[in-house]
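Morning run. Coffee first, then this:
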Amino acid sequence: MPGCLLRYLAADGFLGYGWLSGHDEIVVEHLTAASAAATRALWGVVASHSSVADTVRAHVGPSDPFWWLLREQEASIAGHRSWMLRLLDAPVSGGEQGAIEGVLSIMVGGAAEDFEAAAPVFDAVGKTIVHVGPAGSGQTVKAANQLMVAGHLELLAEAIVFLEAYGVDTEAALRVLGGGLAGSTVLQRKGATMLARDFKPGFRIALHDKDMGIVTAAAREAGVVIPLGAVAAQLVASLKAQGDGGLDHSALLKLVTQLSGRDEE
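And here it is:
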């Protein structure tokens, strides 16, 4: 979790988080929270092996709210070694700047009552927070988000190269385009840096390539045709193959420039 998100959680009284790694091992980092209720919201784990509880005990102690939550869970299922906490999948969108500003969009999958219980945590780091369906739905909406962002970036890159070829004042052009139907968050947040050829990573090409692989595989499984998305996925993969996986995904502009024979030294 980026430090900026931890700062927002800290400001709202939440100071911990963790994640599930592998099949039955919990990796714990900074597991301290304002209350057991906060820990319930921050943790979403479903476990069925005794090694999970053993691993937790190895990392936390009685001073941690999660310790008491674990004890509570174990007591509620006396005679059994397995235990359960409620699970939510909650991918985010908004990029590095959105995280810094605490205005992320958060798409949450899971039971409605669990979403309501976790609301204080989501409110600490996000602005647009929506329950999108049962468990797994958040990941599906995130895949759609990545599909759309890739398409937006590619078309913005093509528009910039097109405008430059005709000698247009590109800064002015993007400003007026942003005020019309072509306006978007992608244009607002990436337009200026793309004009400056500043591809300092906010979201890396390598990560977007991974996500586009997920999108195309999921679409195929669902029997959904995404011709423009498939092309965008190949362009992202091409940029990664050229060794630019560490650049920001707005570096699609670099590829469009190359394909147009307008390489810049």
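The longest strand covers residues 126-133. Good start to the day.
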